[in-house]
Design brief:
Rossmann fold, binds iron/sulfur cluster, 35% helix, 4-stranded antiparallel sheet, 325 residues, 12 strands, alpha/beta, 8-stranded mixed sheet
Length: 325
């Protein structure tokens, strides 16, 4: 049974020009111990979806439709206090900038032990021992000494490890990681990704990994949801999406990852840019950029259609008209 289920989620943003749908009709599920990568350009709605799951959408953004179920229980309509408890205990968060999650005035040990004490029955001594253990687990050298250091005394990569320790210190069942490696050097990125993967495997934690980087997804995720203009363009097992993309947008994203060991040709780019919220075109939002667009694409919005092992919101997978296109 999935640990997290998002069903037909709609997030709206009321503006002077009218109400805009920042996320529309988004559905996916994550099983325990699995990583779902959510990928897309900036503004595609991927971070908003993650923020809605942890109940931290900032007004005027609001959930206007759909449901979010955690372990079979609806969490999108819980009172703030109840959601705060779930967020502390069962759902952890890792954001791009470690400094937003760490208090510069406290040692990392204090931050870890306080979180552990708030959410578990441990004594202060046990909590401190657990903090040291966790720092070791995420690869901080000499954790017994480093536990008393302040965030600024760590490098960027080490700080992100501390944030991962902080997100994991109460053994959450789900972790939302939003661009956790974007601010880091490529070699450190690989280490952090390997760490997330290992922790997820060993602890059975489900991970929703939000990133703009298809390369990170290909390395880490079991399944991937490709988002475009607030909707899911394609979703399926990462291998299938990478090897045999069913949506022209996914195909474009894949073409922008250099193949390992392959020729270093100029990367193929997708022409144009993603529309802004108030300019989303009718029909398929991707049609102005799509090399395969045909008449139906400008008029009707495609629903998710089966394509081999993935689902793609693309009319190419529907009608005989598409074959002629
Ligand atoms: Fe391209 Fe049409 Fe498919 Fe949209 S529905 S991705 S425009 S072929």
């Amino acid at each position: 049974m999935p640990l997290l289920e998002v069903q037909d989620l709609r997030i709206e943003l009321p503006t002077r020009r009218g109400t805009l749908a920042a996320v529309d009709g988004v559905s996916f599920a994550i099983e325990p111990g699995k990583v779902l990568g959510v990928v897309g350009e900036s503004g595609a709605g991927k971070s908003l979806t993650g923020t809605a799951v942890i109940g931290l959408l900032e007004p005027p953004l609001r959930i206007a439709g759909g449901r979010i179920l955690f372990d079979g229980r609806r969490i999108d309509n819980l009172p703030y206090e109840q959601m705060r408890r779930i967020r502390g205990r069962e759902i952890g968060a890792i954001f791009q900038d470690p400094l937003t999650s760490l208090n510069p005035l406290y040692t990392v040990g204090r931050q870890l032990t306080e979180t552990i004490l708030t959410h578990t029955e441990m004594t202060p001594t046990q909590a401190r021992r657990r903090a040291v253990e966790l720092l070791g687990e995420v690869g901080i050298p000499s954790p017994e000494q480093r536990v008393d250091a302040y965030p600024h005394q760590f490098s960027g990569g080490m700080r992100q490890r501390v944030v991962i320790a902080l997100a994991l210190c109460v053994n959450p069942r789900l972790v939302i990681a939003d661009e956790p490696t974007t601010a880091l050097d490529v070699s450190i990125q690989a280490q952090i990704i390997a760490l997330l993967k290992r922790l997820c495997r060993e602890h059975g934690t489900a991970v929703m990994l939000v990133t703009h980087d298809m390369g990170v997804i290909a390395e880490t995720a079991d399944d991937v949801a490709v988002m475009y203009a607030g909707r899911i363009a394609e979703i399926g097992p990462v291998r299938d999406v990478v090897k045999n993309p069913g949506h022209p947008y996914t195909a474009g994203l894949m073409a922008s990852i250099p193949a390992i060991g392959g020729p270093r040709d100029r990367l193929r780019q997708i022409d144009g840019s993603m529309p802004r919220l108030f300019e989303i075109p009718q029909g398929c939002a991707f049609h102005p950029r799509c090399p395969h667009a045909f008449a139906r694409c400008t008029a009707e919005r495609p629903e998710a259609l089966p394509t081999g092992r993935t689902l793609a919101a693309c009319w190419l997978h529907d009608t005989p008209e598409a074959v002629d296109a």
